């Protein structure tokens, strides 16, 4: 089918495939053969694959099929492709001329990476990097001055996705530094507590965080349909006695629960409960299980916050079992094997995945000194996006 | 068990149950009898229910068990309750004195509404109100001046949750009015396009919306793990020829697909695909099915945006079926029975549920006049919360 081209074409075919990331290295294409409504491609490394014609037409990146500025797809795959295109191997890839004269170009490596049947999830950065905490887990620290470099920031992002927690050291003691750090990555996720919040002991708190009491491990805002993903907590002052930060890897502990107390795991993952926060201005409620799984049974999210558990509305014969399961998870989370503790120093910032890693703090005595953290939230999409963009530069 | 109280107590029991909403009217409690680790309650209307003791202890709203300012739960249910409390009927409710001397009060109606086994979802505002569009659906309009009253705003919120779309009429032609309207309800949900975006024809667009081309029906930002829920689009100028707004109820059409083309529905709801947006600053990607169902098979979300469909990565033998299913859904959505069309006038604002209702627009000719919309997003949690708060006032 490697027929020379004769028909004219007005579209501007392109090998860039609409991608901003540089194409990776890969094998050269050596043959293209038509077979019914598929095209069979062969690479020099011996790999081969079949591509449906409609798939090929749909992925044309010419200026008619992809908007030349936005790079968005303009082609809509509403028609079957009845006639095989004329295919030609060209420098770097494949050229197809369709029955209507339209010409498409495809990069050989781009095609190789997207062979049908190779169902890797190239965009699933989070899932690929995630690693549960071992016992005696010690969080990784990144220096602020390193974070300000491309490599340092990239490392910080990777650790955050891998461990669900990373500590930044030696940052400046400047009001709103946490907002500037967030701004490098993406827009802050605003909630009923604002886009950026101050954590200190307040006279009229609407939230336990704004008191001086100890806070057992919890996740923030499980009463939202979509709780915030990533929390940044920047320490400006920490002179009060107490107030050490507490963390536990909710995913690692839930996996332990799955093994040690499968019935408790089942109850917590199959029973939606209500979470709710009320103040004069808001009444925000959501129903979801404490442990959320995806359709393959993998951990997706932990919602754990005893303060804003709403009325437990369950059938009578399941209530005691739910409390038992909750207690087992509570005790496992707060077990010293799983709960880590450290005092944040001024100029340190902890970033953690609020849907995976639970956080808390020891009580502090506000009469012994000031404790002041500034916090904000980021969508995890922004963490992954930032990492992909920084990877373009390497 | 209605024994008179003798032990002293330091806690301050309360009948308010930590709720800010006024208690509804309901039947009077007439008897409380102990039965093992449950308490059986009887109301004057003949209803009765069993309450586990630990449940009752967990829901105590005294000042030790609920923070008196934040109203958040302080009690942690880590111990079994081995001994039945002494119960007394009091004006408006029930008084329990526990073995350790702790005293709890419960409002009779509050208990009646929360009888175990009555598994209504009191916080599930959205699901309760949702109603699919009939054929020849005409959107409901609310006047701006009405919206500025409690009843008018409440109606606007209810229509938005019910139909997934509501039009505001006769608003002022003031820059940023859309931000002020959003600010009444909750914080704006910022994305890579900003917290508040302008929709007009731009010289260097990074998004098809910022051109003058026609936009087929789509949902915004399906390439985010959590696409924005509610979109507000406020029209400031619309003098150009064309540019009519298009909408379809994605849920109603998906239900139609489920009946008319069950195989297409199955393919679209069971096949995660990739969505991705790239520009110089961002590379935001997510994998999800076009039609997302909850674990009971009910529609949860539609992700439909042909511009930012990324490479279709599927096993070879499923690709043609996916394109067929996509085409069937596309054609059904754009069918004149389902797609509605109207020109937004200056001072009109359309609000719609971006995870349910698809939107688009006809091409316009920027040489014939200016077309300028301002938009933002809100979390649906904020819509529901605002409705609950306004309901307190009635």
TrEMBL record, chains A, B:
Its ancestry begins with: Bacteria, Pseudomonadati, Pseudomonadota, Gammaproteobacteria, Oceanospirillales
What are the required cofactors? L-ascorbate; Fe(2+)
Q: Which residues form the TauD/TfdA-like domain?
A: 131-377
Which Pfam families does UniProt cross-reference here? GBBH-like_N, TauD
Enumerate the residue ranges of region (Disordered): 1-22
Domain Gamma-butyrobetaine hydroxylase-like N-terminal span(s) in chain numbering: 33-112
Q: Which Gene Ontology MF annotations are present?
A: 2-oxoglutarate-dependent dioxygenase activity; metal ion binding
Q: According to the UniProt entry, where is the signal peptide?
A: none
The UniProt family comment states: Belongs to the gamma-BBH/TMLD family.
Report which superkingdom the organism of origin falls in: Bacteria
Keywords per UniProt: Dioxygenase, Iron, Metal-binding, Oxidoreductase
Please, one GO biological process term?
carnitine biosynthetic process
Q: Where is the composition biased (Polar residues)?
A: 1-14
The protein's name: Gamma-butyrobetaine dioxygenase
